[in-house]
C-alpha cells in the first residue's frame, strides 16, 4: 500500500522548511491554514477566535519545527498544536466570561442544554453542545479528515479513547438531531 502523494509532498516541504527554506514554509502555511481555520472554527464555534488560533499555531510550528523528529507525523503534530491552542483559547474565553460576570456583579446566564419540546436542532448547534474532547475528535475526524491514529497523536490520547469519544459524540448527535434530551 503506497502513501498518498499529498503526504509525501508535505514531508518534503517539512524537510525543506527545517533547513530554513522560507518558500517551503510558506507553501505549508498556504496548504494547511484553511484546514486549520476550519478545524479551529468548528472546535471554538468562533471564526475570529479561530483565526487567532491559526496564527498562534503557525508561530509554534515555526518555533518547534526543528524538534519534529518524523516529517511523516507532521499532520498529527500540526493538529496537536492547534488543539492545544484551541484549548488555551477556550480557557481564556472562560476567564473573560467569569471576569465580566464579576465586574457586572451578575451570575452567568444559563444556556439551555437542550432544545424546547418540538424544536429541532441543526448539526452545527448539536456539535457546539458536545463536550470539548468529543467536539475536537469530531472536528479532526470529519472536518480535517484525520484517521483515528492521527487524532490520537494530535490529542495525546490512546486510539481507543478517540474511538470512544467518536462513538459517544455520534450517539449524542443522533439524540440531539432527533430532538432528544441528552
TrEMBL record:
Asked if the record carries the keyword Transcription regulation, the reply is yes
For this protein, the record's InterPro entries field holds:
RNA_pol_sigma-70-like, RNA_pol_sigma-70_dom, RNA_pol_sigma70_r2, RNA_pol_sigma70_r4_t2, RNA_pol_sigma_r2, RNA_pol_sigma_r3/r4-like, WH-like_DNA-bd_sf
* Pfam families, sorted: Sigma70_r2, Sigma70_r4_2
Domain named RNA polymerase sigma-70 region: which ranges? 28-95
Q: Would the keyword DNA-binding turn up in this protein's UniProt record?
A: yes
Domain of life, per UniProt, equals Bacteria
Check the UniProt entry and state the signal peptide residues, or none: none
- Domain RNA polymerase sigma factor 70 region 4 type: from-to ranges: 121-173
Q: Which CDD domains match?
A: Sigma70_r4
Keywords from the named record: DNA-binding, Sigma factor, Transcription, Transcription regulation
Protein family according to the UniProt entry:
Belongs to the sigma-70 factor family. ECF subfamily.
**Name under which the protein is recorded:** RNA polymerase sigma factor
Amino acid at each position: 500500500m503506497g502513501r498518498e502523494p499529498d503526504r509525501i509532498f508535505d514531508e518534503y516541504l517539512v524537510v525543506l522548511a527545517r533547513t530554513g527554506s522560507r518558500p517551503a514554509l510558506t507553501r505549508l502555511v498556504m496548504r494547511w491554514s484553511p484546514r486549520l481555520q476550519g478545524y479551529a472554527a468548528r472546535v471554538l464555534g468562533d471564526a475570529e477566535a479561530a483565526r487567532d488560533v491559526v496564527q498562534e499555531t503557525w508561530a509554534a510550528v515555526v518555533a518547534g519545527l526543528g524538534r519534529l523528529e518524523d516529517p511523516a507525523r507532521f499532520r498529527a503534530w500540526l493538529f496537536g498544536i492547534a488543539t492545544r491552542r484551541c484549548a488555551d483559547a477556550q480557557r481564556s474565553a472562560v476567564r473573560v466570561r467569569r471576569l465580566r460576570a464579576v465586574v457586572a456583579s451578575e451570575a452567568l446566564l444559563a444556556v439551555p442544554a437542550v432544545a424546547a419540546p418540538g424544536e429541532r436542532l441543526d448539526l452545527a448547534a448539536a456539535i457546539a453542545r458536545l463536550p470539548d474532547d468529543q467536539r475536537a475528535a469530531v472536528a479532526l475526524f470529519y472536518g480535517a479528515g484525520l484517521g483515528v491514529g492521527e487524532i490520537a497523536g494530535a490529542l495525546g490520547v490512546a486510539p481507543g479513547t478517540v474511538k470512544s469519544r467518536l462513538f459517544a459524540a455520534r450517539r449524542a448527535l443522533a439524540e440531539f438531531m432527533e430532538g432528544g434530551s441528552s
